[in-house]
## 1
Amino acid sequence: MRIDIITVLPELMKSPFEASILQRAITKGHVEVHFHNLRDYASNAYKTVDDYQFGGGAGMVMMIEPIDKCISDLKSERDYDEIIYMTPDGETLKQGIANELSLKDNIIILCGHYKGVDQRVRDMFVTREISIGDYVLSGGELGAAVLCDAVIRLIPGVLNDETSALTDSFQDNLLAPPVYTRPAEYKGAKVPDILLSGNFAKIEKWREDQAFERTKLRRPDLLDE
């Protein structure tokens, strides 16, 4: 997989990809992540990428021309499965979207800023709009990092145990069950006996029941889906 991220703050974007699972995925060659500074595509000496909005109103708007130049430059080198715009009014990121995107070959992620991008960018270039929640950030960079983490960890070979991702919360519209590790007793708090029994059929049934009960208590909306 190749991910191209268009941003006015590439230095903000890079740190999450220089550690942990994301770094390992890049080092092993499972994914390529490239950062493109939108200011490199500005048409004036001041590297301007935003302007006042027509009709008045507070806040600057990202201009269409630099974005067009950047996307066109990238598309001249390869085909892209998705051009994603990170925006608060996009579809809310869920596990199913991450699953779907993990199967793609080439993705562009455009990080919004200020009051967003010229609507013509969304109409002409963007194929998908994604939000990480019902709140507003200073820009789309952190949302893009969240999206990349959710997608990249699903690529075969990225996780040491590939079955781990299959038992994560939301994969089957259930929250994950409680988990325990050593010691079996700590300050009077004990691990459930069933987990120490060695009866894996009963353990699996216990986990399924716990996942259902936890979901029913904490996220009953997931059961409706």
Note: The longest strand covers residues 82-92.
## 2
Amino acid sequence: MTEPPITLAAAWALHLQNDRRRSVHTVRAYAATAARLVAFLNDHWGQPIDRSVLARVTTIDLRSFLAKRRGDGLGNAAAARELSAVRGFLAWANPAASAPRTRGPRVKKGVPRPIAPADVIALATDVADDAAEPWIGARDWAILMLLYGAGLRIGEAVALPAGILPLGATLAVTGKRAKTRIVPLLPQVRDAIDAYAAVSPWPGARDAPLFRGAKGGPLSAGVVRKSVQAARGRLGLGDRTTPHALRHSFATHLLGRGADLRALQELLGHASLSSTQVYTGVDAAHLLDVYRNAHPRARYP
């Protein structure tokens, strides 16, 4: 019995993995984008999609695809990442064809706002994809997942010792004033750390740093900040999109979903409740924007 033919998205994933040595996260995300584009074009044009058909993709087709994705709730940074993946896929499918010219979405700069979950993944994926080595990409992905998924400060993340392995359901974190707090670990965060530990070339003693620099020394927080700065430029995010903004988003999203302020204070390691209360203002402003835009009887003060 013959094997079914491999899909275009799967073939591109193999190219990214074997020829381009992209991270596992990038391969998964880019292949998913390619599959979405092929499905969209199949429905859009009403015919099977192969390499020769992909050569016919125009700027109007890409705009229609992005409009559909934005309708699915995709944020600006994630849409920019989606467009980047589509361009790469089309260039791989037809190297001789000229790529359609489509400008990516712009992201307004100004007052810091929580980063949408899809944009967090886009940012983390871009940072991991740009890493010099696969293990460095896995390291950066794990760190950014810790900031957004567990609310750690960047300094707390890079200071974690290798002794935290093997991971459990919670993690003891030493923060400011040497105060230790216990934070829960989401399965996605645990998986990211385990994936990094599995490929790291720098095993060490339990008191050695978990996250290592390219030459094996302790990782500097500045290295992570620099990688995020480069990624936000590629994705069109504002200059206040920093590693700390992921912690900010962690807090705001939890509060928006009904988290207790005292519990959030414990998770963040704030010595004073007043430090945590700043997030109530951010969330209230967001809710007020939603109310004003959606409620038929809303009035501006």
Note: The first helix runs from residue 8 to 19.
